[in-house]
Amino acid sequence: MKITDIKPYPVWVGHRNQMLVKVETDEGLYGWGEAGLSGRELAVTGAVNHYREFLLGRDPLQIGRLWQEMYRSQYFEGGRTLTAAISAIDIALYDILGKALNVPVYQLLGGKQRDHIPCFATTKGGTAEALVEDVRLLLSEGWDCIRTGILHPSSDDKALFEPRASIAPTAAALVAVREALGTDFALGIDYHHRLSVAEAASFCQRMPSGTLDFLEEPIRDEAPEAYEALRALTDVPMAIGEEFASKWQFLPYVERGITQFARVDVCNVGGLTEALKVAGWCEAHYIDLMPHNPLGPVCTAATAHLGAAVPNFSWLEIRRSPTEQMRFYDEEVFPLQPEAHGNRLAIPEGPGLGVDVNEEYIQEQSFAFWEAPHLHRRDGAVTNW
After folding, report:
1. How far apart, in Å, do the first and last CA atoms of the chain sit?
2. Helix (H, G, I), strand (E, B), or coil: what is residue 271?
3. Most exposed among 105, 240, 350, 369, judged by the fewest C-beta atoms under 10 Å?
């Protein structure tokens, strides 16, 4: 079997682009993959097109060998743009291999270790009262792990975000959730790396111990030492890693006990090949995976197969619940995709990933420029989104 084409499709789905990649073979089998570098799809397209030039004619079943060539052969190894492209191609190759052997991808990863994939829901809540009601609704629908967002004083300037101004209302709202609804469920928050070490510590210290089961990405990840400083200032478990683009980026966070949940993203870290290595490393340190999945059905399917095959797994991020209906899962675009049943995702049982894309439909669509918000503080300085 040989690779005959690799097609990148940066295409608008719902309210944001998805970076889909199709790998075709001379035996009629094809695979779909997805890259997760949202907002930089055109850069990833360039990388995919470059890889295409030396992957044509190659054996698609040599997944590990091709991964090493894509990662190492350009001398300047890695980088998020390249590993996002590698991720999409790698996932598509697993899809092809599963179809060639007529087995679901999880069988290629060691077999199924669980019967379904537990998921967590996300809710923003504009006020403490709204957040309590959103969490109450989710609990009534059977969700037992809930992630919240940041509360910030309202402003006519939609690009204004003052980190310190968010700390008090967000902490108070989370305490209100626990006071109103108890402790029989997991509660976390995604701070989207918007704080400094001091701000993150202040935020945690404003809540009674046990309020949060996880704090996701409170600060930027470039310096593990900064996270170690924060680790010493709070007892809240950390959920880190959605931005990591290799097992090497996970290394200090796993080896030095900085994170308690690994937010691995199969569409950025290097595909299933690399994600499985991260999972084994985490298992050796008693760290569960809590995968990042703000993308579409291809990422969801690939992550479901990973989650099925590893022992150390907590929850999968899924962006459809009673409090959030992201338009990533358009059935016109994805006629075959994993089925969600409340807080459980069914593990696809068909050959390959168990997902398909309406290629004719996406060929008629176009890329639409989208840029993440460029936030600023009151003094005009740039701050993180």
Report:
1. 44
2. helix
3. 369
Nearest residue to 13 via CA among 361, 374, 338, 371: 361
Domains and CATH numbers, the chain: 3-105 (3.30.390.10), 107-349 (3.20.20.120)
- Average pLDDT by stretches of 10, the chain with 385 residues: 98 91 98 96 97 98 97 88 98 98 98 98 92 97 97 93 97 98 98 97 97 98 96 97 96 97 98 98 98 95 98 96 86 94 96 97 90 94 95
Cα-Cα-Cα-Cα dihedral sign, residues 202, 208, 211, 212: positive
- How open is the CA angle 318-320-324, to the nearest 5 degrees? 115
Q: What tokens were used for 152?
A: 């910030």
Q: Tell me whether strands 238-240 and 261-262 are parallel, antiparallel or unpaired.
A: parallel
Q: b/e for 54-93, b at 16 or more Cβ within 10 A? A: ebeeeebeebeebbebbbeeeeeebebbbbbbbbbbbbbb
Task: Name which of 142, 152, 149 is nearest 174 in CA terms.
Answer: 149
Distances (CA, A) of 32 to 172, 276, 347, 363: 44, 19, 17, 15
Q: Do 188 and 147 contact (CB within 8 A), yes or no?
A: yes
Helix ranges (H only) for the chain are: 41-55, 63-72, 80-101, 105-108, 128-140, 163-181, 197-205, 224-231, 247-255, 271-284, 297-309, 359-363
User: Which residue in 199, 196, 190 sits closest to 150, CA to CA?
Assistant: 190
CB 206 within 8 A of CB 234: no
Supply the residues annotated as catalytic: 192, 292
Report the C-alpha gap between 280 and 205 in whole angstroms. Answer: 33
Nearest to 291 by CA among 106, 98, 271: 271
Output the DSSP codes for 287-343. Answer: -EE-----S-HHHHHHHHHHHHH-S-B--EE-SEETTEE-TT--TTT-SB-PPEETT
